[in-house]
Amino acid sequence: MEKRPLLKVNQAGISFGGLKAVSGFDLEIHQGELVGLIGPNGAGKTTSFNLLTGVYVPTEGDIFLEGVRLNGLPPYQVTRKGISRTFQNIRLFNDLSVLDNVKVANHSRAKHSMLSSILRLPSHFNGEKEMEDKSIELLRIFQLEHVKDELAKNLPYGQQRRLEIARALAAGPKLLLLDEPAAGMNPQETHDLMELIRFIREKFDLTILLIEHDMNLVMGICERIYVLDHGQLIAEGLPEEIRSNPKVIEAYLGEEVSSDA
Amino acid sequence: MDWIQQLVNGISLGSIYALIALGYTMVYGIIKLINFAHGEVFMIGAFVGFYAIAGWGLGFFPALIIAMAVCAGMGMLIERVAYRRLRGSTRIAALITAIGISLFIQYLFIYFRGAQPEAYPEVISNQTFNIFGAQISSQSLMILGTSIVLMIVLQFIVHKTKIGKAMRAVSHDMDAARLMGINVNTTISATFAIGSSLAGAAGVFFGVYYTKIEPLMGVIPGVKAFVAAVLGGIGIIPGAMVGGLVLGVVETVVSGLGYSLWRDAAAFVILILILLFKPSGIFGKNAREKV
Amino acid sequence: MNTKKIKGFWLFVILSIIVYFAVQMAANIGMVNNYHVNTLVYICINIILAVSLHLVIGITGQFSIGHAGFLAVGAYISAIVTMKLSLPFPIALIIGGIVAALTGLIVGIPSLRLRGDYLAIATLGFAEIIRIIFLNIDAVGGAAGMQVTKMTTWTSAFICLFITVLVIVNFTNSRHGRACISIRENEIAADAMGINTTYYKVAAFAIGSFFAGIAGGLYAHNFYIIQPVQFGFLKSFDILIFVVLGGLGSLSGAVISAILLTIVSTFLQSYPETRMIIYSAVLIIVMLYRPQGLLGTKEITDLFKRKSVKGGS
């Protein structure tokens, strides 16, 4: 029997006021894979992430995670089912501490009730303690423990990006979606990020789908790559296949060619 | 034929709401601010008209023009003193400031003048015409006629003049308009001036029609005109006109059915229903936050 | 981290007990007269209102400008319970709070889908509708109002205040409070992190309404008469200014500004116009020059902490 994919997207699409932003989107990701999603600006990459995470409800097609249909679930339920994400334009909780940012994502894995918190019952203290311990452990892995009490908005850019990934992991995903994690990073930072992504994938037994503009990063770590253009999938395959695919080259022609970066 | 009369009363009231609503909608369209102080501009318009008629013995139209001019200046002043500083701040800070300005004008006015009401002089001879058996007053017709003229003038300004084009450009994209060489500050000032002058006219009409004016008279019509603007689709000029008329007619019908104490609630029920089911209003397009 | 919060908690409890008995003793030996005690009761009521609205606006970031509506529900319902049903005052307070919370659910579930100024206008509209409903019920006296026996005492007001602050602080310092704050900070990200944003918005709104209802009960039984006109937009504005002036997101800021402004307004009681001019001018100036309010999202204790850290190093 063939192994069931972790994520299966079947002909999904969405149109806004008659305009098809993404259509006929097929995706199959197996447990443990690290897959890239690339395409020129405006190809529909972030829109497809929004479809996967429930921000948009697909107007056509289906999305399954471990065989469970996700269409129409609100984002918070999609997250609880096991898909969590980062954002292209960082969306941290700016006025919360680094630690609290991670704790928020831990929220749905804790059990203590509102009443127990209001009455300060032991279950509240135990629950909060557990959240704190887990969060600090995660921050340690991301080398952010020393800034745990800083406000998120006061972190330097690179640390904010890392915090966003740490926060997404705290939600306990099976599938992690990274939306341009290396955007705005210099080559050294990008290199460190690649190491980090490889590391957390091993450590947390994760499956990762990432959108990226930086070709070096995508070609360097992704095992398989999907290419979107004008809301349509135009290619799928191994990095070397993608690199030499005439359709992909054509789509990127005239675009900035990031592979020389 | 009682309902025709009700309808005409409703349309007269509605045209007052519509004139105030235009100011709300134009300001919201251009700087995304609910200008709570707009009701106070309306109140000041009513008082300026009153002093012009009762104090200086002017006729209806000269008083109307003076009220509109004073209100235009007042609108620009409010924008210059308070709102201009708020352009970069949060919507909430802007909203709170607008509420603050509104209360500040109300109570400063009461502080210097007192809270007592005034009776508007009868500046338009009050004849009633019998049309299809309905009693329609000359005042209603005058208000209606003048409102329509003002709205046509507004449409002309917005669509045919240079400043109108600048206003539409700024409301579409302020930064792009600035890059295209449009003076954004002047354009916003002009928007406040035009919107406020319409509110001033509405104030005079209100005085003539209801005969009683007082310093807190702007609160309820102000909020209702806002409802009218939301009803029609905020930021959309014809929407404000239609929204005002609809609201006026609905209120008159509710009163006519014998529920006059619930009249004010009708506006809020409409507001809530429209916010819940079609927040973009009758003429609006849905917009969504970008992720 | 946690130990600090536990310390703060006990400090709060001890401080409250001291304040309570100090006032009680001062009243017993005649150091403060009835007028002063009444002002203190009024301060308690206003703090409850400020803190309850702080939960909605400051913590959850949902901009409600119709808080007086829930105050009205609590006031009328509790007055009906004591005056018409002759039940004891504490029960009336609780029933008033519960009905206000239910009203909060009815108002909140539909309107909390809206954001920013649209939500503000919707809550304003709901509050007006609530007021107009009471205006039209003859059993509660319509516009003339309803006679209520004075039952609110320093003790009852202080106990209610104590419980309110305790509940809201405990709520805020838990995963539930953090969920609310995350909505304030970035609703889309909160949603993406698995927070049921609708649930927490509505929950914060209902809890806030509950305590506004409690405050309403105290208010009604402190004034001999309640009338719909007392619960108009200006009342909502009064509560709003506590929260905004103190700093959106700062509980101690809300408490301090509630205390200060209540004292200011008792001095200006005979000059209502002057009071409104000062209030609105202060609000405008704060918004223009310090839009985050006096304390921002910080608490007064944070200020001391920073100083002591500096002093220690």
UniProtKB/TrEMBL annotation, chain A:
<protein>
    <submittedName>
        <fullName>ABC transporter ATP-binding protein</fullName>
    </submittedName>
</protein>
<keyword id="KW-0813">Transport</keyword>
<dbReference type="Pfam" id="PF00005">
    <property type="entry name" value="ABC_tran"/>
</dbReference>
<keyword id="KW-0067">ATP-binding</keyword>
<dbReference type="InterPro" id="IPR003439">
    <property type="entry name" value="ABC_transporter-like_ATP-bd"/>
</dbReference>
<dbReference type="InterPro" id="IPR051120">
    <property type="entry name" value="ABC_AA/LPS_Transport"/>
</dbReference>
<dbReference type="InterPro" id="IPR027417">
    <property type="entry name" value="P-loop_NTPase"/>
</dbReference>
<feature type="domain" description="ABC transporter">
    <location>
        <begin position="7"/>
        <end position="255"/>
    </location>
</feature>
<dbReference type="GO" id="GO:0005524">
    <property type="term" value="F:ATP binding"/>
</dbReference>
<keyword id="KW-0547">Nucleotide-binding</keyword>
<dbReference type="Pfam" id="PF12399">
    <property type="entry name" value="BCA_ABC_TP_C"/>
</dbReference>
<dbReference type="InterPro" id="IPR032823">
    <property type="entry name" value="BCA_ABC_TP_C"/>
</dbReference>
<dbReference type="InterPro" id="IPR003593">
    <property type="entry name" value="AAA+_ATPase"/>
</dbReference>
TrEMBL record, chain B:
<feature type="transmembrane region" description="Helical">
    <location>
        <begin position="90"/>
        <end position="112"/>
    </location>
</feature>
<keyword id="KW-0997">Cell inner membrane</keyword>
<feature type="transmembrane region" description="Helical">
    <location>
        <begin position="179"/>
        <end position="206"/>
    </location>
</feature>
<protein>
    <submittedName>
        <fullName>Branched-chain amino acid ABC transporter permease</fullName>
    </submittedName>
</protein>
<dbReference type="InterPro" id="IPR052157">
    <property type="entry name" value="BCAA_transport_permease"/>
</dbReference>
<feature type="transmembrane region" description="Helical">
    <location>
        <begin position="261"/>
        <end position="277"/>
    </location>
</feature>
<feature type="transmembrane region" description="Helical">
    <location>
        <begin position="132"/>
        <end position="158"/>
    </location>
</feature>
<keyword id="KW-1003">Cell membrane</keyword>
<comment type="similarity">
    <text>Belongs to the binding-protein-dependent transport system permease family. LivHM subfamily.</text>
</comment>
<keyword id="KW-1133">Transmembrane helix</keyword>
<keyword id="KW-0029">Amino-acid transport</keyword>
<feature type="transmembrane region" description="Helical">
    <location>
        <begin position="60"/>
        <end position="78"/>
    </location>
</feature>
<keyword id="KW-0812">Transmembrane</keyword>
<dbReference type="InterPro" id="IPR037294">
    <property type="entry name" value="ABC_BtuC-like"/>
</dbReference>
<feature type="transmembrane region" description="Helical">
    <location>
        <begin position="6"/>
        <end position="26"/>
    </location>
</feature>
From TrEMBL, chain C:
<feature type="transmembrane region" description="Helical">
    <location>
        <begin position="199"/>
        <end position="219"/>
    </location>
</feature>
<feature type="transmembrane region" description="Helical">
    <location>
        <begin position="89"/>
        <end position="109"/>
    </location>
</feature>
<feature type="transmembrane region" description="Helical">
    <location>
        <begin position="64"/>
        <end position="83"/>
    </location>
</feature>
<keyword id="KW-0472">Membrane</keyword>
<feature type="transmembrane region" description="Helical">
    <location>
        <begin position="9"/>
        <end position="27"/>
    </location>
</feature>
<feature type="transmembrane region" description="Helical">
    <location>
        <begin position="154"/>
        <end position="172"/>
    </location>
</feature>
<keyword id="KW-0812">Transmembrane</keyword>
<feature type="transmembrane region" description="Helical">
    <location>
        <begin position="116"/>
        <end position="134"/>
    </location>
</feature>
<keyword id="KW-1133">Transmembrane helix</keyword>
<feature type="transmembrane region" description="Helical">
    <location>
        <begin position="39"/>
        <end position="57"/>
    </location>
</feature>
<dbReference type="InterPro" id="IPR043428">
    <property type="entry name" value="LivM-like"/>
</dbReference>
<dbReference type="InterPro" id="IPR001851">
    <property type="entry name" value="ABC_transp_permease"/>
</dbReference>
<protein>
    <submittedName>
        <fullName>Branched-chain amino acid ABC transporter permease</fullName>
    </submittedName>
</protein>
<dbReference type="Pfam" id="PF02653">
    <property type="entry name" value="BPD_transp_2"/>
</dbReference>
<keyword id="KW-1003">Cell membrane</keyword>
